[in-house]
Amino acid sequence: MTAVIFIAPFHLPVTMRFVHAVAALPNVRLGLISQEPLERVGPELRRRLAAYERVADALDVGHLEGAVKAVAGRLGGVDRLLGTLEQLQVQLGQLRDRLGIEGMGAEASRNFRDKARMKDALQRAGVPCARHRRITSTGEGWAFALDVGYPLILKPPDSAAAKGTFRVTDAETLQHALAALRPSPERPAVAEEFVTGRERSFETVTIRGKPVWFSSTLYDPPPLHVLENPWIQWTVLMPREEDTEDTRLARPHALAALQALGMGTGLSHMEWFRRDRPGGSPVAISEVGARPPGAQIVSINSYAHGVDFYERWARLVVFDQWDAPPRKYAAGAAFFRGQGKVRPGARVVAVHGLAEAQRELGDLVVDVKLPQVGQPRAESYEGEGYAILRHPDTDVVARALRRLISTVRVELG
């Protein structure tokens, strides 16, 4: 039996899909560590757990170390220590190092989590990325702006999903960003050249550092634009074609980036820009995460390939096994986001266009979470709901996604 400990600080729906996938594997004894009480675990999953430990702070490595030792004692050891949350990756590496558990250690985890450290490593490896600088004072921020010019990006070194990221277009917005981030030696920030282009993702499966599979998606519009405009509805598209001009451009840089950063076994997520400009690299790497992608990309892969990618991920990280069939469909997600005055306590008061969307596009929908009247305004960039579409023709899915976000409107009040 393989002893696995999964750390899920919060029982988020996507996180628990990964937990369920590991729990369903044959010959696995699973322990779960969380801040949530055991009573919030569904009865089916609870029956599959060999151990459960609740901690006060599941992002604190000190709290987690005692919990991992306790659960390992009940499991008879621990072979794999897992977690999918971006903010947990360094702590997982620290625990693996301290307790002698196989997997990515703290040094490699920091390469992925600290964005300035990441880009330093990418530059040393010759991987194209934005000019950047770690800044520890407001003066250094102003100096970077003088060197690089506007626009530029300021963000924490451990940002995730573009949260806490500022687009700086002039001296006034730079002053605002620096006041919000307050960079210091203890809490530095990262300043970056603002890269323009069409934003893509690139996912890679590696086993002990060797790439064995990849996929790519297209964002419309880019995630930072989505975060800056909470009313914008957006899409993610995975073409049916596995070998495209995008993948041919990005793949060598993605593999070089993963090698430079120290990726081991897992599913990684890279965001990059395609820059159609003369005289420069057509690729600029934005960020790389050593964990599964968000934005429903794992589910999109499941529908595009006709297999459960959560189960495939579980086999990958527990048994070092990977098997994915050829892609059968194009697939994509449309995210529905509330419009109206954003105020404390805002809720969905109406959802418009659903009947029309159902008539036109219902036969393409394979998964849906519709916004519900009365639900609170979502804090996530995924918004109040989504729909996943699938069809053998990429153009059909692309047109349907655009039509969907122009037809459905979520009203807040």
Automatic annotation (TrEMBL):
Source organism: Nannocystis pusilla
InterPro entries in UniProt: ATP-dep_AA_Ligase, ATP-grasp, ATP-grasp_carboxylate-amine, ATP_grasp_subdomain_1
Residue span(s) of domain ATP-grasp: 119-318
PROSITE patterns cross-referenced by the UniProt entry: ATP_GRASP
Keyword check for Cell wall biogenesis/degradation: no
Protein name: ATP-grasp domain-containing protein
This protein's UniProt keywords: ATP-binding, Ligase, Nucleotide-binding, Purine biosynthesis
Domain of life (superkingdom): Bacteria
SUPFAM superfamilies, per the entry: Glutathione synthetase ATP-binding domain-like
Listed PANTHER family: ATP-GRASP ENZYME FSQD, FUMIPYRROLE BIOSYNTHESIS PROTEIN C
